[in-house]
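Re-running YbhB/YbcL family Raf kinase inhibitor-like protein to confirm reproducibility after the cluster update. Everything else is unchanged from the original entry.
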Amino acid sequence: MTTLNNPFARLPEVPSFTLTSTTFADGEAFGPAQYSGLFGVPGGEDRSPQLSWSGAPEGTLSYAITVFDPDAPTGSGFWHWAVANIPASVTSLAEGAGDETGSGLPDSSYQLRGDSGAALFLGAAPPAGHGEHRYFVTVHALDVADIGVGPDATPAFLGFNISSHILARATLVATAINNA
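Result of re-run:
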């Protein structure tokens, strides 16, 4: 993983575990379903990717998931998805779990509003001509069952709280480009 604009480069190193997806491969492009129809990308469906993880360390009591684009032309990146309080017994999410109702998420978990203002998975929507963007899809293994932030918190505040409770992190990086 490149350190150029890597959102984890300045955080303390933690162990990793295995994260896989049947939706996309690490370092490869998202498919059309993972692009944003809400942001006007033709064919975009804002469908969250399928994720499976294993090998989290002993003592993991919950997980959080974040999807972050550090290449967005905002000066602060762009949060596409944030999910908190996934029970330690859950080790996968189906594709589309991050819809506007969170219908595919475990009962105790919830989606936070991303930078779009909506609590859902917002697909990739790099500005036309801005080049390739990277989407850091990350599962964070935590030492608490409840991260202590509410659904009205920002993903950045979730990340701040994650940093105090992180046991390990697993990341896949997807890419997207808009040549329109």
